[in-house]
Amino acid sequence: MRMSELSSTTGVAVPTLKFYLREQLLHAGERTSPNQAQYDDSHVARVRLVRALLEVGGLSVARAREVVGAVDAGSLPLSSVFGVAQRAVTVPAPLADDAPAPTEGDRLVAELCAARGWTVYPNNPGLALAARVLDTYAALGQQRLHAVLEPYAEAADLVAGADLAAVAAAPDETEMTNVVVVGTVLGDALLAGLRRIAQEAESFRRFPLPEGVPAPGSATTTDEDC
Amino acid sequence: MRMSELSSTTGVAVPTLKFYLREQLLHAGERTSPNQAQYDDSHVARVRLVRALLEVGGLSVARAREVVGAVDAGSLPLSSVFGVAQRAVTVPAPLADDAPAPTEGDRLVAELCAARGWTVYPNNPGLALAARVLDTYAALGQQRLHAVLEPYAEAADLVAGADLAAVAAAPDETEMTNVVVVGTVLGDALLAGLRRIAQEAESFRRFPLPEGVPAPGSATTTDEDC
To answer: B-chain residues within 8 Å CB-CB of A101?
Structure first.
């Protein structure tokens, strides 16, 4: 197909497709004349993936390029693909004072790993990210938020179990790699979305609404309710 | 204290403090001369919060300003503060084709809410976010990832229960508001970090490492292990 058809099939505008090509997010088509190239199903699939990474996953172009590179590398062991996908979606979390010494947060995370039997390489980006958040809670005088660590870890185990079951259900290694990338990048957004819903539902249970404010699901809002 | 002391107390450079002031992320100090102002503990606390929102939470300046505004508004009901904090950290998730009609993702999310007894207002940003991710899985040919919805929802309930317990443990309404903001914005990052760790641990359980690759926790890596 020509670029115009790639555009209509994927719903992505031609200038955006040219941007993807220029940024090496999309592999070149087969050139049929100096001004024309042919694209195939592999381009359709790639455009959809790139769009999902950028628009739904909220990745930068540079990080999306890394993820796409991991998919293309193919021969990487599965755990390396996880690593690349994980790093691509992990907000860089600078140390509070650029201190290389382990902090209270690092200690709490190490304890948690030991308690849960989580054995991982020390460069797992989640270790530093979780530790920095715990240190930040403390720096903001919100040590009480350290109490969420246990239930959050329980939740993370549930999620990771589901993630890996989805990977294992894929028919071959190429598909497994795709599940890892898509599920890691977009899974954070899915989980965040569900957390927002559950938070609001739970807040109505715990804290009554001010008088006169209609509750969700009441007569005035029923039509559009969740 | 003067700005130089605010800088040394918080570890944030003076030009950055001036940027916070200019961007209305930090309230002005009390002017003592045309070129000088005095800052107090409220400024220290605010600088720490803003830094956490921007650097650990990964928020944009505009979104951080909204969050700070919600904290300052004070009299908002708690569920509104939740709303602002939630919207500030929710990646905008455009509809696949700007279609206003409910999609398969919307339907799945509505079913899930009904099954779990999640009653929320229709403008909860998590509804659209979760639905868009499910639609994107389908568009990428990864419907098998819809299987994660149940365990993710279970995890979201655990997390939300812990979130609201932390809010309820705060001594007064100002503190509750702070817990909501800090816990919502940074809690996503904490959860993402723990998910990365649990994913890697689970992947070692399910998929053996290629031969010759030292496992985490083996003699060569013990020193720095999780």
So the answer is: none
Angle made by CA atoms A84, A86, A88, in degrees to the nearest 5: 70
Residue B225: which of A49, A122, A215 has the nearest Cβ? A122
Strand partners, B30: B38
Query: DSSP code of A40?
Result: -
Cβ-Cβ pairs closer than 8 A, A with B, add up to: 404
| CA dihedral over A147, A149, A150, A154, signed as positive or negative | positive
* B120 with A160: Cβ contact below 8 A: no
What is the distance in angstroms between the Cα of A34 and the nearest Cα belonging to chain B? 31
Q: Say if residue A153's pLDDT is above 70.
A: yes
Q: Domain B1-56 has what CATH class?
A: mainly alpha
- The total number of residues shown for chain A amounts to 226
Distance CA B120, CA B86 (A): 13
Indicate whether B189 pLDDT > 90: no
**Domains of chain A, residue spans:** 1-56, 57-206
Whether the per-residue pLDDT at A12 is higher than 80: the answer is: yes
User: 10 Å Cβ neighbour count for B37?
Assistant: 16
CA–CA gap between residue B40 and residue B92 (Å, rounded): 36
Of the candidates A170, A163, A226, the residue with the CA atom closest to the CA atom of residue A200: A226
Residue with tokens 């185990």: A157
Would you call B223 exposed, middle or buried from its count of C-beta atoms within 10 A (0-12, 13-18, 19+)? exposed
Q: Name A60's Cβ contacts closer than 8 Å, sequence gap at least 6.
A: none
> pLDDT at position B96, please?
46
HSE-up (13 A, CA, CB side) for residue A224: 10
- Collapsed DSSP state (helix, strand, coil) of residue A175: helix
Tell me the shortest Cα–Cα distance from B34 to chain A, in angstroms: 31
ipTM: 0.82
